[in-house]
Structure formats: structure tokens, C-alpha cells
Amino acid sequence: MDTRSASRQGLKIDGQRLYHTLGELGQIGSYVDEETGLSGVNRLALSAADKQGRNQVVTWMRALGLSVTVDRIGNVYGRRAGVRDDLPPVMIGSHIDSVPTAGRFDGCLGVLGGLEIVQTLNANDVHTLRPLTVAFFTDEEGCRFGTDMLGSAVATGRIALDEAYRLRDANGCVLVDELRGTGFLGAADERLTPPHAYLECHIEQGPVLRSRGVDIGVVSGVQAISWHELTITGKSAHAGTTPMYLRADAGVAAARINLKLREMISSGQFGNEMRATMGAIAPNPGLVNIVPGKVRATVDLRNPSDPHMKDAEAAIIAFYQTVEECEHVSIRWRQSARTDSVKFDDSVARRIANGATALGLSHEPITSGAGHDAQEMSRLCKTAMVFVPGEYDGISHNPREYSTMEQCARGVDVLMAVALELADES
Amino acid sequence: MDTRSASRQGLKIDGQRLYHTLGELGQIGSYVDEETGLSGVNRLALSAADKQGRNQVVTWMRALGLSVTVDRIGNVYGRRAGVRDDLPPVMIGSHIDSVPTAGRFDGCLGVLGGLEIVQTLNANDVHTLRPLTVAFFTDEEGCRFGTDMLGSAVATGRIALDEAYRLRDANGCVLVDELRGTGFLGAADERLTPPHAYLECHIEQGPVLRSRGVDIGVVSGVQAISWHELTITGKSAHAGTTPMYLRADAGVAAARINLKLREMISSGQFGNEMRATMGAIAPNPGLVNIVPGKVRATVDLRNPSDPHMKDAEAAIIAFYQTVEECEHVSIRWRQSARTDSVKFDDSVARRIANGATALGLSHEPITSGAGHDAQEMSRLCKTAMVFVPGEYDGISHNPREYSTMEQCARGVDVLMAVALELADES
Prior knowledge:
The structure is a homodimer. Chain A contains 13 helices and 18 strands. By secondary structure, chain A is an alpha+beta fold. In chain A, the strands form 4 sheets. In chain A, strands 3, 4, 5, 6, 7, 8, 16, 17 and 18 form a 9-stranded mixed beta sheet that branches. In chain A, strands 9, 11, 12, 14 and 15 form a 5-stranded antiparallel beta sheet that branches.
């Protein structure tokens, strides 16, 4: 054991090599973004570009000596043998599929970071007690088939395989056919045997770490999410001829709900980390001189506290009724998404914090605002995540998405330190 | 002169015949509205349906013995000779083009009401001193080529002919080609020789007359109109990961402007007849989990008082600045339409009121909330309008648009009485 510890001391990945690999994968499915002039990435799950990306990563896995398994939902696992190969592995993973207007970091950092760790261990002849598996999951983004974290949800039993197979994209293409078409309809059981631990390094996709000058985010969990789809029905009317007292303006009703969300946040009544957004507002007919008779709108609520989330939901639903009465409109709403908060493993989070400190890096706990494969895996084994900061207020799902070589390398260094500790646990 | 007066006494149009003609014209361009199940009308200016409608009205004009002239902007004038045919005529007019989701009354009542008057005069062998002209103007609605009251604006010199000719619809079709294609690129000078007077009967397109139980609206003028097209630029951001203090939410900015309009109205500071509407709100990207980075929105202000309108414009423009500062967004705005209030001729309005009283009909002065060809004609000659009530809160630009046979007939009866008085003036 001492020899092992010694060989691990001060071990660092090669940031330039990692960054180069991120750049190579980012070439696949690349396009020139008209707004920014930057090169963006479009690798929708199981598209031709995703197939090419998957084949590239599998080629890299094999070149590193990993034994590659593809399961029946297209998740790919590259396994590096351990000294005790019978023990459950430590798994490092994320995804390589993308939204249609992506950068090169979202998901890829976690997967290629895992491969960089393997390469570093290989080069330094480091052998871990437990096997080390680098995984990438199918369709984390959910942009094509409508269900995010699909592959990891199937692997951990939240979504049944046959249900996933039947999903269709906007063109009617069926998921199982697309799996077959890309050559990633594997034979391995989709239900994953619990690993010893699961680790994921990801860009923050937000501005917090960068604005506080912190190197490493120790992700304590994922906040609860609640989405409402609203249909507000008032009465279309001529903007010039209809007196105000006879109007039922669905646009005004939507505006009141939007500002109520703001008011709920500043009240502090639902915790200090509540977030709320009206992202979609579509009035009908939507013409300058017609009072909107119908508005479709969305409400996105987030809260790291489940009780606060429940209270916020009750408050906004009560407000829909108030608006119905005051504005003479009717409001139908549908819960289009709802997840409770996820709490990651404290002991692994502590290891991440300690690992960062040992490497001389600053760190802070942070709650993830977005969903990740790690939240699915947390049902199966002890799980935690490392966040790295992003430039430009952490913009993501956009070609401007950007983390520096140092930011990426630091995150993967911490990941490696923690992975080694866990992989040496007997 | 006495003989003439005698033959006019108690003269009434045939309401059933008028209503039947409205129904016949309403068949042209009709469609079944999905929302209401009612038969709607779609006769966009210079479309195939409008061509068919125009040909039908011209056929009716000729059958009544009118001599038909088509000018170079497609306005159609049907002239009934006067005893003194050298005197400028009394003109009765409106339009027969429609919005894409229209009823059968908007515009058509004024034109077919004019023809009904001619038919009544013919049947009763009544001859007026001055000629009587029934007119319909090209593209009053402005839905296809973007400029409303186009034909009457060209006829009265506000818009130049060549400027009108160059207008294009959304498909790139050029107006002059469409005029030629429908066979309505006439040879007559588009600049109208001032008539003796201009009269227009129109549905109110609002709820006031109906809700007060009044038969006839004596239109005193048209209110001022001001349209702003707003482009609000904030910053797109992930709804889950972006803290509230770092957001620049263009949707919230639009909501604040929308509610400010409401507040301005209730303050009473801009008169009691101010109207304000945000009809269009289009967020980009408009997705549930993305803070809107850009919103295009419109503001429609109306006021019968020009000074109140100016004050309201100044107030909302100042508020744009407030929102820019508070919400960290930038707001560009463009004046997409602006007309001062129009005051119709007092003496003609008095005749309308007296005519209604003589027919035993209740009447009230009313300001038009919508624009009409009459406001263009008022630059050329003494002008006034008769409004008739509409059912269902006067809904218009909708297949539910509906005025009863009696409501229509009363309006045209009053119009006839006033037209005869004016046409007998030497």
C-alpha cells in the first residue's frame, strides 16, 4: 500500500493533452455559429455526428487498453483492470452527446477527463486495487428524444428499457432503430451492477465559481426542479376600440405571473437559493393592435430545499387563481417536469474538498442547477461531482461556452486524486 | 326643391336586401373557422378572393346603372348622375378587403350600404342635385402590404403612387403586379378631385354603443395612435444555474413595461380614454429552462387627446430607461406608426345626429378607436362617419363579428338621409 501511495503523490494529468483531446472531439459535429462567428458543436444523441464521436472515443479507449462494453441502451463502459478485478470498480463518467448549439466542454470534460486519468496512470505505471471504468451515457441532453439523462436513467432502473426504445424524435425516428443504425445497440445488460463509487467532473454552466475566484466546486447535490406549462385564455380584442374594463388580456396575466416569481424570490420566503424563470411566452394572435386572447407560457422553479420547493409551488398555483379572478382569464397548467432534490455522498464530497486542498486549489460547496448523469448514479452507489468554473458568466449550451486549460486540468486532477483514493479502498 | 323634399320624406332602405347582399359578398373568400365553427372571411387585399369580391361589387354597381371608374391604385368609384352633374359629388365609401380572420361587416357595410341607398333612390325615382358616388378603396386593412388605408391615402395625397406600387407582401409579391393581376390597375388619376362631402357607415368594432343600448354612433373623430416596436436585449442564461442577481431577463423587462401601461391608464393622468396594449411578445430563445436573452414586443397607445398622447409617449419612453437601468437590459424602440387625432366635420356630425333623431333613433357621439378611410378623406372634404353597434362586445376581425339586420339598416337609413341633404346642397 505504501508503494502505491508514494507513486500517487503529486501525480498530475497533462492539461495540454486533455485540452487537445477536447478540441479533437469538438471538431466532430462542428459548425460555424452565425451570431458569434465561433465554432459550435451539434452532436445530437444518436445522430451521424454522435456516431462519429462515439467511434472516436471508443478508439481512444481501446488505444489506452480499456476493455469496452456497450449495453442495450448504448451506454459505453471502458474498463481498466484492477489488482483485485473481482471488486466493483470506481466509475468516472458523463456524456458526449450535445444540444444543437453546444460548446466542447459540456459532458465531454467528464468523459475525456476520465481517459486522461487512465493515460496518466498508464504512463506512470500506477495500478489501483479496484478496476477503474470510464463511462459515457446515451442522450444525457434529452434534446432529441425528449427525456434527459436517458442512458443513466435506464442503467439505474428509473426508466424501463422498452419504454426508452419506443421514444421518437421530432421526425418520428424511433430510438431503438437509431441505436442499431449507429452500431451502438449493445448486448450487455443495461441494468448496471453497482460500482464502488461514481465520480463526474463537469463545467459549472453558471457564473458562481468564476465570479468568486474559486478553482473547484464541490457539488453537494442537485436542486429540485418543477416546470409548469401554462395556457392562459382571455379574449382577443381590438386594441383601439376595446375599453380597458372589458378586456381579458392574457398577456397582462402572464406579465403578472412573471413579476410574481420575482417577488417570491425577493421575499426570501422560499429560501435564498430559489430560482424562477418564465422562459417561454407566446401570445396569440401576437399582433401589435390585438389584445392577446391566449398566451402559452412556462414557469421553471428551482430550489435546493424540497420543503421550500413545495411551498413555492403552492404559492404560485394560488397566484394563478388570483390572476384568473382579477384578470378575467382562465389558467390551465400542466406539470411538465418535477424532480426532488438529490443529495450527493458527504464522504466523497469531503474527499473532493480535501483533494483540492492538497493540490493547493480553492474550493467551495455548490448545488448543481442543472441535471447530470451523477444524479441517476447516486441511486446506485456513493456519488459526487467536481465542478470547474466557466468564463463569460459560465455561459453554456452555446458556442461561447469556455473553460480554460487550467480550469479543466485542475478539475480532472482533483477527480484523479479522489478516484485513486476510492479505487484503493478494499 | 319641394318635390324633392317630399319624395325623400320617410324614405327607408330595404334592410333585408342589404343583409342579403352582405351575406353574398361574405361567401367570397369564406372559410370555416376552427375555433368557433363559424364561417369567416379571408379576402386579403388583391388576393384571388379580393379580385372575385371586387368583380362582384362592380357587377352590382353596373346593374344599378352606376358608371364605374378604376384609378391607378385600384380604388373603384361608381357614380350616379346628379341633376347638376358638373357639381362635385357626395361620396359614400369604405373598403371590401379584409383581415385573414374577418367577419362580413367590416368595411362591406359602408360599400354595400352605399349601393343599397342607390337602389332605394332608383326604385323611388329620386334624383339628387349633385352626383352620388359609391367608392371602395384598396387595402384599407394593411394586413397584406403593411400599410393600412393605402388606397384612400394615395387618393388624398398622403402616400405617393410610386411608393405604394413598390410595396411587397410577405411572399415578395409587388403591389403593382398584384393590381395588374387582378385586373384593377385602372387608368384614372389616383389623385381624387375633392368631393362635396364624404360619408362612411361602419360597425363600431367595440362594445360601447351596444352596452349603452344606443342605435347610432355619431363619430366625432379618430383617436391618435402611437405604435412602438421594442427590442429588449438582456442575456440568455441557464434557468437552473444562473443566480438571480446575475440575470438580465428581457422577459421580465417586457412584463414590467406591460404592467406599467396598465398603471398609466389607471392613474388617469393621461385622460380617461387612454388605451394601451402590448399585443406582441416574442422571447428568444423562448424555452422553458432558458432566461430570455432577447424579447421583441410592441406597444400600442391610443388617445383621443393629442396632448395626453404626447404625455403618455413621454412617460413610457422614460420608463423604458428606468427598466434598462433596473433590469440591466438595453431597449431599442422604433416608432412603427403615429397619427394625430382626426376631427370630423361638426356640421356633418350634427346632420347625422339630427337625421337619427328624425328617424326616431337614439344616438351618441363616439370617438373611433380604429383607423378608417374617412380619416384620409377628411383632408379633402367635409367628412363624418356613422357607427352601428355590434353584438358580443362588438368583437371584430373575427368570424364572431355580428351586427343585426336592424342595426345595419338603421345606420344606412341615417347615412341616406344625410347623403340626400348634402347631395341637394347647391
